[in-house]
Amino acid sequence: MTIxxxxxxxxxxxxxxxxxxxxxxxxxxxxARYDRPIGFWLxxxxxxxxxxxxxxxxGAPAQLTDLGWALLFALGAVAMRGxxxxxxDIVDRDLDRRVERTADRPLAARTISVRAAWxxxxxxxxxxxxxxxxxxxxxxxxxxxxxxxxxxxPFMKRITWWPQAWLGLTFNWGVLVxxxxxxxxxxxxxxxxxxxxxxxxxxxxxxYACQDMEDDAMVGVKSTALALQSNLTLWLWIFYAAAAxxxxxxxxxxxxxxxxxxxxxxxxxxxxxxxxxxxxADGPACLAVFKxxxxxxxxxxLAxxxxxxx
Length: 310
Known about the structure:
Helix content is 70%, strand content 0%. The protein contains 16 helices and no strands. α2 (38-58) runs antiparallel to α3 (64-96) and α2 (38-58) packs parallel to α8 (174-183). The longest helix is centred in the N-terminal third of the chain and has 33 residues, at 64-96.
């Protein structure tokens, strides 16, 4: 059987290094979303905020060794986000063919075989395993505990209107891993930041899901965008207000000074500004707002970093 030629995916960046890679490798790079790097950021940033919150709780300023942990988490995020997307597309390949935005994904478009995708998944998991083995023991066990969440995620859109909540539980598990790496424990500050990050994801992934509301309704896929569309703006305010309040609470529980209230304002402003820019009927605008969450997350990480020196 002839394998179709590589196809660019609808919401990838206009031009990336993936488009210049050898053609036979491009479908694998697209399968792992290397042409859509925002997901790598959104998986790595919770690890970094958890790491920095734990450093803040330790009473010591950020250390040079923390940079090494941050780079290790970045590598793990690249490997495991790619693995997660590969697994998701294996499960969703038939649904993806019926949704305009996802119809050109490699498995939906049959530009690679399912067998090749499974082998690629195993290779990425091997990289993730190597990263895992560098972590302290508690952090290692905490990371392994996320596998059930990852395995179940692709099926959530079939059984609940809140798959974005499950994504929040899954994508932000790095908060707990990063915190355990430094603190050697999971405490109230870590839990507060984890729940804060869950609400953050509920907001940004609901905005992302607005792109697919029409197709999702036709094929029977559930999402918070569909469930909440009549009061979408109100719910986004609720999600993002909870995210900001709980992030501040996490800092307080970690022993941050009153300066944190000032330092966290840019993060909160960036969250609420997304609501102003969100138009559910404008897919490209929703995608742009979703991608802006790299800045949102980095602003929170910066707030915790500076707080550790004050």
